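hiii, so i know i said id send this last week but things got crazy w the move. better late than never?? heres the sequnce for the chain we talked about at the cafe, plus the structure i predicted for it. fair warning i was half asleep when i ran it
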Amino acid sequence: LASKMNVESDFPWANAVIASPMVMQNSRIGGDLELSGARFSATTSFFATKVENGLILKNTRFDGELDLSDLTFGRLETVKGQDDEVVWETVKPLLIKSHFSANLYSRVEAYFRDRGEPDLADSVYIERSSQERSRKLSGGSVVVNLLEQGLVGYGRRPYLAFIWSLIFVWIGTWVFQEKRMVLQDSSAPAPKYNAFWYSLDVFLPLTHLRAGELWAPKKQARLAWIYLRIHHLIGWILIPLGLAAVTGLVS
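okay and structure toks below
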């Protein structure tokens, strides 16, 4: 097929078997692009093709190289009656197989968001960011991408930062056990020590729970001193990052 086609009605390709390379680039389909049951054995490209109505992908197979870059559509459909989650599970492997296209991921994300499916839209964004790392990024950008994924789910899972924070505070309650701690002013009355409050105080940035002021690891507790610095640094990373994700500054 030639590029720059203009089809005013539906383009029915149900159950078609295409053994040779198929190119439909920069084309327009005025109705549905019906690919149910179709099988494409060689290179297939719908680059920059515009489908005005439905892109129907029920049991569609692409065995060869696939390019869906900059494809646009009115709706996505797999099997009539299936919910949007099934649609995403059907479309996801096709996006992974296709040449990477941030624009296409953005359109799929917007499609689910417009349909009132914010969780699915977030899943599309997370998959896009993950694929971008493996296909486009290198060096330090890969490290930053991995940290964004693991710590805040690329800004779409901010609760991850607070889960990690709870884990580190819990570790701190074990590291900063009372037997490893000493009151900094031995002449003052000794308040009751609580490992959890101390761990929380030295973890949270810009807090003044006073536990961190009153107590410190003993001089001989070298590992506690080392972990104290790490603990404090991680708190300065995780808490602002989590808050930035909640407010939408990380996305």
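btw The longest strand covers residues 54-56. thought thatd interest u
miss u guys!!
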